[in-house]
């Protein structure tokens, strides 16, 4: 029986060549080259490589000088690392409900919260671009200026994604964080990237990414000082070598994902009990293809798994997780749109190396199982 994994890492000639160069002791500046190439690809001033995507988010909080008791607003529909990096500073994540159509943070609710809770303790807003689709960033940045908060964009699923013709990470946010091995789409190499156009933010991030160590260029190499509390967020040369080859392919990968999404939508458009995503957004990169199943989503996913199709969910709302539910006394109905969406959403496999046969197989199984719903 054919099986279609939810994701699959790719390793072509370019990846092998770059990694071999490092192993042979040649071309040992892969991290710095990746940072240069990434900044050029995104169209931002600075890019700082990190060990993984969560490291980039944690470093972003350090760069913003987050402190105990500070507050950071985020979508309730995000991977746990978003709220987690806030809690590591003994700061408080504040959850906001989502839009029903794209699963991103609801800007009306965000603005209402900021209007009613103006405080020096309110430091930032973390916005997660679900499936690579952004909120109205022009409006978001305007809100940020009015209420004097920093915007950190979680672009784990948005590498190469566009907003009004510009790549996410070059549109005006204070910090954007990328993840080369996002949730449920694990890569063979981990890595993250923090990008910014802000000189002060990037200088602080660079300092704190290496234990806040400073050296006098004229002194012996082993003489150093420590001027703050940092950590080690560094990416390895082997990871960077592999990821440099991946970066070159990203735009063509997105094109392939968009083609697969069109096949999915054309084939599943009239399938009972299944709602397909909006296909009118030409900038949608379809890093995820999220359908809605009108009832018994988990049993639907289980039947797909038995039939050879792996699926994912993006995401379990944070207020349903034991730690946050008990820590902040959250109720299941506090965020009704996120709750309703969670009960229905299902992410189908979508990645550039999927064959046409695999795409057809997924469609067949979805339609076949949908017919059994009553």
Automatic annotation (TrEMBL):
Pfam families: DegT_DnrJ_EryC1
GO molecular function: pyridoxal phosphate binding; transaminase activity
Matches recorded under InterPro entries: DegT/StrS_aminotransferase (IPR000653), PyrdxlP-dep_Trfase (IPR015424), PyrdxlP-dep_Trfase_major (IPR015421), PyrdxlP-dep_Trfase_small (IPR015422)
One of the GO BP terms on file: polysaccharide biosynthetic process
Positions in coiled-coil regions: none
Source domain of life: Bacteria
Entry annotated with the keyword Magnesium: no
UniProt record similarity statement: Belongs to the DegT/DnrJ/EryC1 family.
The name this protein goes by in its record: Aminotransferase DegT
Native source organism of the sequence: Sulfurimonas hongkongensis
